[in-house]
Amino acid sequence: MRRIGLAVVLALSILAPLAAEGQQAAKVARIGYLGGGTACILQCEAFRQGLRDLGYVEGRDVVIEYRGYGGNFERLPALVTDLVALKVNVIVVTNTPSALAAKQATTTLPIVFTSVGDPVASGLVTSLRRPGGNVTGFSVVAQELVGKWLELLKQAVPDVSRVALLVKTDDRSKNDRVKAAAVAARALGVQLQVVEARHPAEFDRAFLDMTRARAGALAVLPTAMFASERRRLVDLAAKNRLPTMFPYSEDVDVGGLMAYGPNLADLSRRSATYVDKILKGANPGDLPVEQPTKFELVINLKTAKALGLTIPPSVLGRADQIIQ
Question: In the prediction, which pLDDT does 273 show?
Fold first, then answer.
């Protein structure tokens, strides 16, 4: 699959020391970076590229302190406390749980998130236009995306009459997304089945509920927990023969049928511009939360074949990438 070789190289680079303190002649900015998993490694490299594009050289202008939680969210508070103790100039986080952990740990150090769902509903910022406080960054999901997922599913599986929507029970933006999905489902003439799961231990029960209700397709709402369990969700969708729409291309990389959503690498690269502004004196509370501008549709034809599904040419023609 694509990106695997890159992920290995980046993992090794993260583990290796980036620069010795003794080699820093001038004042060097220190950035704390909190992420986890292969997808976060890829986002991290995009962030580093964004810094390079702005003229930063690691070891000369900036040192990045990496902390990875590997999908174990219980480790987040300790890792953030460690970064705060290092007195980094800014903390970069990749998702809502890590952003919330960082905000709880410090009200003074600037925090930039690269890809959260609804920063207002989650309590990270007071508004998108003027975040206030010490937190800002980039949001990954607009409510209209939910309707787009159902629309693409219906086009890919024209005969589907019932679509399941997998949501995380305690997702603070769940209600708004479910309402948007219900409106889209009615417009498409399909029934919507909302299935909730709070923990990975509830996945088997959730898929059993879908099959019992005869759902013909599935859309997975984006959450950090679902992203950390993407391989298991992909396997369960295949086992239950459910054509599934995922939110990110990384889900399709590991065998998901299709995904439509923002390009996470692009958001991570753009987040470097906010770090640059903060290092130059900007107040994070004055930097508006930015929305994604680059979206991609990715389709896995190998998965479609395994499901006995023929993706219509009209859908394939819209794909930004097709995995054979």
Answer: 97
